[in-house]
Design goal:
Blueprint: H1 2-16, E1 25-29, H2 34-48, E2 54-58, H3 65-76, E3 83-87, H4 88-96, H5 104-110, H6 112-115, H7 118-124, E4 125-126, E5 129-130, E6 132-134, E7 138-139, E8 142-146, H8 147-153, H9 161-173, E9 177-180, H10 185-210, H11 214-217, H12 220-233, H13 245-253, E10 257-261, H14 266-272, E11 281-285, E12 293-296, E13 298-302, H15 311-321, H16 323-333, H17 349-364, E14 367-369, H18 379-393, H19 399-413
Helix pairs in contact: 1-5, 1-15, 2-14, 2-16, 4-7, 10-12, 10-18, 12-19, 18-19
Bound molecules: beta-D-glucopyranose.
The site of beta-D-glucopyranose (BGC) has 12 residues, from loops.
């Protein structure tokens, strides 16, 4: 029944777009880890069910930095892919360049305005026009924990920064890696996102990461944030440099490390390894950020191939936003649906918690775009911030220098 409904909606979209035949879609994305690939399969199969073929254009590299570099090269050489996985301000940047197809008819046909939360629409739309279809909402301020190791070491779920440090100390004393981490700029940035929110609180997050206020960026609180990053650096193993995020997750899955601080795509890896939340692993909010949600949303932007959106682009966009697909996909991906009108009873405990917290945070003013995942400030600023955070994490700057460099980096790239 679900398939029938979706197929009919897609057909309606094709008619709206005035197109008649379907071809392959070429999709550029960075979903190459096990859990990510499993989620992507849900989308591929959905389209296959509509007779649409899939031309895969994967660009490995968490957070999508490499994917965005490849995209730029493809567009520059006049060979844009049909559809591209994209985050926040990157969508806005491409829309500004006039590169994206207008999805207004499909959005109107399927009532997107009513079901997609404003925080996402801010990026799905440019100048009032729909230019991207959101497939999910991820949230970054999570900790993933090995339940059996926590039980063995007598560690309770840490509620505060001090609890967290005490738990990390216990793990260290037991000879385990306390914090699984991969030394890549976007991962350092993901950690920084949570540490900054925990240390300075929501107003500080708003002022620094979103408003880019020089005074807040250069404040003593910011120095404390860097000091805390230095403290966490002491709980990371020696081989962290360059490690992919999913390999860090595997350390928790394999009982080598106790915690990983990562967005909820990490849950996709636990699930893909056959683990169950609450039994094998725990998910909880980064200590001292329990009231807030830092979010990022994967959206698919369609590159203009001519005057109108093509039939396969229309089908892809329609499938992505359909209720049945949003549940099926997000169950596997670790994220939650991008529409607020769904019954998420089929999601696991972490997913249900994430969905409720996302909605609650949106209505209480506690929802913030993740800086590390392109939802707080544009790529130029984000990348400049990454450089400073990574240099500090690797001991090239002390905290005071890092604060000064951060202020300068923002000033130059704003
Ligand atoms: C994306 C996720 C992806 C993660 C790691 C994030 O920026 O939003 O979908 O799983 O990067 O690759």
């Amino acid at each position: 029944m679900r398939r029938l409904t979706m197929t009919m909606t897609a057909t309606a979209a094709l008619m709206t777009a005035g197109m008649t035949h379907a071809a392959d879609v070429e999709v550029l994305h960075w979903w190459t880890a096990g859990g990510e690939a499993a989620a992507l399969n849900v989308l591929k199969e959905d389209l296959a069910g509509q007779g649409i073929g899939w031309e895969d254009m994967p660009v490995a590299g968490g957070g999508g930095t490499q994917a965005m570099t490849v995209l730029r090269a493809r567009v520059t050489s006049g060979n844009a892919p049909t559809a591209v996985q994209m985050l926040g301000f990157d969508i806005t940047d491409w829309a500004k360049e006039g590169a994206l197809a207008n999805l207004n008819d499909i959005a109107a046909e399927n009532g997107w305005d009513e079901v997609v939360p404003a925080a996402l629409q801010k990026f799905s739309k440019y100048d009032g026009e729909w230019v991207a279809a959101p497939v999910n909402v991820h949230s970054t301020n999570w900790v993933w924990a090995d339940k059996s190791l926590m039980d063995e070491l007598g560690i309770d779920q840490p509620q505060t920064w001090d609890d967290f440090i005490a738990a990390l100390d216990k793990a260290k004393e037991a000879g385990l890696t306390p914090l699984a981490h991969g030394g890549q700029a976007w991962q350092d940035g993901t950690l920084f996102d949570a540490v900054l929110l925990a240390t300075g609180g929501p107003d500080f997050y708003q002022k620094t990461m979103i408003d880019l206020d020089p005074e807040a960026l250069g404040s003593d609180t910011m120095k404390q944030v860097f000091d805390r990053m230095g403290v966490l650096r002491g709980y990371v193993d020696d081989n962290f440099s360059g490690r992919d995020w999913n390999l860090a997750t595997a350390m928790v899955i394999n009982d080598e490390a106790v915690f990983q601080m990562m967005g909820d795509w990490a849950k996709g890896e636990f699930l893909n390894a056959g683990q169950t939340p609450g039994e094998d692993f725990l998910c909880f909010r980064f200590p001292d950020t329990q009231e807030q949600v830092l979010f990022n949303s994967d959206q698919f932007a369609m590159f203009s191939q001519g005057d109108a959106v093509s039939d396969e682009q229309a089908a892809l966009a329609t499938a992505i936003m359909s209720p049945g697909f949003q549940i099926a996909f997000n169950k596997v991906k670790g994220s939650v649906p991008a529409r607020t009108d769904l019954d998420v009873g089929e999601l696991d405990a972490c997913g249900q918690q994430g969905y409720e917290e996302f909605k609650a945070a949106a209505s209480s003013g506690n929802l913030f775009g993740s800086f590390a995942h392109g939802h707080a400030n544009p790529a130029g600023v984000k990348n400049a911030m990454y450089d400073v955070i990574t240099a500090h994490f690797n001991g090239e700057y002390d905290s005071e220098t890092a604060v000064e460099e951060l202020v300068t980096a923002v000033e130059i790239n704003m």
